[in-house]
Design brief:
429 residues; alpha+beta; outer membrane lipoprotein receptor (LolB), chain A; TATA-Binding Protein; 2 domains; 12-stranded mixed beta sheet; 6-stranded antiparallel beta sheet; 10 helices; 18% helix; globular
Length: 429
């Protein structure tokens, strides 16, 4: 691939289609797989011409390529997607299971007591490498299968029914949604979806899902160019390169490989400003834009499978699964820590946006002042102690999302550096 030499322009807007249905407030800031949308809140367009490369494609400007993505009407496809995520979460060793359990909904991993409940499965894609088999036939029929071992997990939406099946446990989860309003797995189909539905509303599964998040709006904080061409999943593609103009972001660049014929994003790669391997890399390895066979979306539970009905799970308490994690709710009730009702304050713009959350309680320093020395030492080892006009606090880091928790109970979080978090906390005082 040859890089493209081009001048920058800003101030134009571009969209890549309808934004996904609204997320719960807690997941919006907790689930790290959404960081691309938060970090790329504003994008300035660049009229860049694609340089000659391999394959040799007609020249196109970045503005035209973004318009091509927005105009893409691809609703039918099937293929294989590879997802690789390395967000750099700190390892808690043997505490990992206990920590996860503290924030797990009641009733088991999925909250309903079923190993097939789709709620918990979305988080699996936030770490490691995964292979997905995907298929879609318009807004009424989609299927996503996770193929990480000899076992298989599938989420199927077919008109007014949603099935999830876990072959390892031979358990199935079933929900009925009037009028086929269920949010499609990994797609933005099903407009007017029931926001209180029984399946996760946002399960990114294809490059298009991630690209849509990164191309929601435009502004003056980002440069966009066409950075040559590529072959992805056997198809000719343009490479759209998105980079921040601002300093202080943990996002280095986003590259979207766009199918030259259909305008469909085929690959999405997000690289951190600190260098190293991609933090998020999602791409088709095989893709077919013809209509999948109708049988692809048929599902009947195997003989002997345990079937959990969504309405039964809700009556048994599984309804809380699709709300805020129980651990966050309990913390708010007991200690005043932020729950789903808290409204965040936004500081800054573009790639250096920081979200401020007032928990109403004590941060790690204040809360553990009277804790045993071993407990204080453990918490200090997880982050870096910082001081400023705001007082003192601890910064907890990943490769993309960092959070400053002050000792007086405020939280500042964003895809920004430690210095940017400290500046935001100082400015808020």
């Amino acid at each position: 691939m040859a890089p493209n030499d081009s001048a920058l322009i800003t101030g134009r807007s571009g969209e890549s289609g309808d934004a996904p249905a609204g997320r719960g407030r807690a997941s919006r800031y907790v689930v790290p797989i959404a960081v691309a949308g938060v970090a790329a809140a504003t994008i300035g367009l660049v009229p860049a011409l694609a340089a000659s490369g391999d394959p040799d494609l007609p020249k196109i400007s970045a503005e035209e390529l973004i318009e091509k993505i927005a105009a893409s009407e691809t609703e039918r496809f099937s293929g294989t997607v590879k997802v690789s995520t390395d967000l750099g979460f700190p390892s808690l060793g043997g505490l990992g299971g206990s920590a996860a359990g503290a924030f797990a909904p009641k009733g088991g991993a999925g909250g309903s007591g079923s190993a097939a409940d789709p709620t918990a499965r979305a988080m699996e894609l936030a770490t490691g490498e995964h292979t997905l088999r995907v298929a879609a036939d318009g807004p009424e029929r989609q299927r996503v299968s996770i193929l990480d071992s000899a076992d298989e997990y599938s989420l199927i939406h077919n008109d007014d029914e949603v099935w999830a099946y876990d072959s390892a446990s031979n358990e199935a989860y079933h929900a009925e949604v009037p009028g086929g309003a269920a949010k499609s797995p990994g797609r933005d189909a099903g407009k007017g979806a029931d926001k209180g539905g029984p399946v996760p509303e946002d399960l990114p599964a294809t490059p298009r899902d991630f690209a849509r998040e990164a191309l929601k709006a435009a502004g003056d904080t980002t440069a966009v160019t066409v950075d040559g061409t590529a072959r992805v999943a056997g198809r000719d593609a343009y490479q759209l390169l998105i980079k921040p103009k601002q300093s202080g972001s943990t996002i280095g660049s986003v590259t979207v490989a766009v199918d030259s014929e259909t305008g469909t994003p085929l690959k999405f790669t997000l690289r951190p400003s600190g260098g190293g391997k991609a933090a998020i890399d999602v791409g088709f390895t095989k893709v077919d834009f013809s209509r999948p066979a109708a049988s692809t979306f048929d599902f009947t539970p195997p003989k002997g499978a345990k079937v959990t009905e969504a309405d039964e799970a809700e009556r048994a308490g599984g309804k809380d699964t699709h709300k805020a994690p129980e651990g966050l709710k309990d913390l708010k009730d007991a200690d005043g820590v932020m729950g789903p009702g808290s409204e965040p304050n936004v500081i800054g713009e573009g790639w250096t946006t920081v979200v401020r959350l007032d928990t109403g309680g004590k941060g790690p320093g204040g809360a553990t002042k009277d804790a045993p020395a071993e407990a204080r030492q453990f918490l200090d080892a997880l982050g870096d102690k910082v001081e400023g006009k705001f007082g003192s606090g601890t910064v907890f880091k990943t490769r993309l999302v960092n959070a400053l928790m002050t000792d007086d109970g405020e939280v500042y979080v964003g895809a920004v550096t430690q210095d940017t978090l400290v500046k935001a906390a100082n400015a808020a005082k």
